[in-house]
Amino acid sequence: MSETESSEKRKFPEYEEKIYKNGLKGKEKPVEINKGEGKKEETEILPTLVNALKNDLGSALKDIEVKDVRIGLAYIGVLLSENYGGVACTPLYEFSGCPALGFAGSLKGKTADKVLELALSKNPLEAAVGVATANALSHMLWDTKSENFPTSNVDILDLIKPEDRVAMVGYFGPLVPKILKITENLTILEKREIESPKTLILPSEKAREVLPASDVVILSASTLANRTFDELLSLGGAAREVVLLGPSSPLYPAPFFERGITAVMGTRIFDPMTMLTIVSEAGGTKKLHKCCGEKVAFRKNQ
């Protein structure tokens, strides 16, 4: 059976409740796992993020409806019934075949708790829809419990020193020349082929060699949906600064700070309807920030 045929027959995933050792309730696919795999999943960021959002939102989560989902070339956008929106990077480069969702047409109208659980999927596109939902929900929590989410005015360039060795996972084109004005020691890990790179770019498989020797690690938030975040974070343990960067970053920093991230820098969508239009028309980060979003930073207390 071809990959296209398989994806077209796929139904919306059903999850069964699972209790993790840390006491949080979560949702996971009903598959058999060995003890080693189970232990690994208990500490992964996405199950922890999903469970934390469920705990904070409580029963209200089941009353929040997903009003719209847009999957564009650059970003995925989710609109909730409370007029909160969130985005996540579309993981186009994770597929060698057709990434079509067999349950397309069924997301609109589902409750937010069900679509949030897609973040636990092994399918990067499904997971990205879940991450975008998590981002929309984190915006909601930020508005209702702002005292729990103190923001920072820190800029990522403020965290870099001239003597630092900087590793960037994912290519942030506009940021590259700005970093190079501070330090020449910048290495980028990227899956795509970048035209006219201004610094050293290595395949992402070189992370094990590059990250342990870095003083500053910049992780694209797209690493959440493609499920490389946890491994990459473990490789940068000696870094002074480890930053989660990009509009896919949830505005819910606590689980990330607990794992060693020192700053979370994301985007708050203040105009969800415009966001949906931009996503649908293949708009990117610049357009989001110009028309419907603003940069937000959270800094871990040192």
UniProtKB/TrEMBL annotation:
It comes from the Archaea. The keyword Nucleotide-binding applies. One of its GO terms (molecular function) is ATP binding. The keyword Lyase does not apply. Residues 157-296 form the Putative heavy-metal chelation domain. Residues 56-138 form the DUF4213 domain. Pfam families: DUF364, DUF4213. Keywords: ATP-binding, Nucleotide-binding. This is Molybdenum transport ATP-binding protein ModC. The lineage of its organism: Archaea, Methanobacteriati, Methanobacteriota, Stenosarchaea group, Methanomicrobia.
